[in-house]
Amino acid sequence: MKFLTLHVRLTRDCNAHCSYCSSAGVSEGRMSVEDFRSAIDFIADRVLPRMGISPSHFLTVEYLGGEVLVVPPSDLKECVSYARARLGLIVGGFRDGAQSNLIGTPRRVIDLHDLFEGNLGTSWDRHSGQRHIKGSAQIYQGILDRSLRSLSDERGHVPGRVLVIDAATAPHLLNEVADSIDGGYDLVLRPVFQGGSPDVDAIPPAQLADLMRAAYRLWSDTKLNRIEPFSSLHHRRAQRGLTDVSGARSALSRSGCPFQSDCAFKSLSLDPDGTLHVCQEMADAGHYPLGNAITGTFDEPTWRLLARRTMHLSESCAACEWRDECGGGCMNEAIEAFNDPFAKTELCPAWKAIFAEIEADLGTMPTPSS
């Protein structure tokens, strides 16, 4: 089965402030239910067929922000119900979920959990103080802790978490990985990208490589919980050339971002004003818009240009021994660094460090020096 993710951002507004986030301090309003219906109809009738989406696909719809909790509950439920009914008929499999900061009342958080049947994750940063409400990281963390307790006590749910890696969080990365292993919750490690906010303070690729190598070693000692990108990349490399009877490889391919060169076929993003992009990161950076689902336009030539990335990777990517598992890295990172969707990502040293650790873990090559 093939996989597609539709990122839906009903609003860019947020009830908190994270210094590296594109929604920090934003107050732009939200997409109306009527506009959402129009956008979903256009995507279903005009965009997905051109992308080749069919009953052989599994579609995941992820509601993001801004912050999804600032959308009135009745509007959110109506939008979610409409998307389920309209898009679920097109594909062979369907699920939806939400990414939320969980800054809300316990009742709202539980209702959000129930609306998405537990497919609910959150952002995470225990140490740097960059997530705050009215300048207070303590208030933010206090409300988040209350929400996590409510989810645990009332629903037995421990949300997976996304940690943005930048200069402020990098010193705490290994502690965060150790905490996720001890706490048994899933963790996604995402290097910050320049398009998200003017306050971004990234770390050099070589430093990121050292950190990711050390973090992989922590996770590989147990492999008890899912930490991305380690889990999916390890599985892909271990299953290279093998028949995937269980279907696990296909399931993990859904979490492969940014490790895929064919993301134009696997991802689509809808913004509150109707603008379409390949993904949320491309939307934040304003790279290569694909039209507008509310006004009913789709820039197929631009989409086809981006869809050729698989065949136009750099020579070094095409010849790389981990080409099949990596896919050339993130297209948005390549655009950010070189203004070229076909270029090699500047984070290549970090990803190669992970793959080298995987090879050592599988016993196929010596462990590289730190």
Secondary structure layout plus pairing:
Layout: E1 2-9, E2 17-18, H1 33-50, E3 57-64, H2 73-87, E4 93-100, H3 106-115, E5 120-124, E6 131-132, H4 137-155, E7 161-165, H5 173-183, E8 187-191, H6 205-220, E9 227-228, H7 230-238, H8 248-253, H9 263-266, E10 267-270, E11 276-277, H10 280-285, E12 291-292, E13 297-298, H11 300-307, H12 315-319, H13 323-326, H14 331-338, H15 348-361
Parallel strand pairs: 1-3, 1-10, 3-4, 4-5, 5-7, 7-8, 8-9
Antiparallel strand pairs: 2-6, 10-11, 12-13
Helix pairs in contact: 1-2, 3-4, 5-6, 6-15, 7-15
Structure write-up:
45% of the residues are buried. The chain is built from 15 helices and 13 strands. The longest helix has 19 residues, at 137-155. Residues 245-254 and 366-370 have low confidence and may be disordered. The chain has a domain at 1-157 and 262-311: Aldolase class I (TIM Barrel, Alpha-Beta Barrel), CATH 3.20.20. It has helices at residues 33-50, 73-87, 106-115, 137-155, 173-183, 205-220, 230-238, 248-253, 263-266, 280-285, 300-307, 315-319, 323-326, 331-338, 348-361; strands at residues 2-9, 17-18, 57-64, 93-100, 120-124, 131-132, 161-165, 187-191, 227-228, 267-270, 276-277, 291-292, 297-298. Strands 9-8-7-5-4-3-1-10-11 form a 9-stranded mixed β-sheet. By secondary structure, it is α/β, with parallel strands linked by helices.
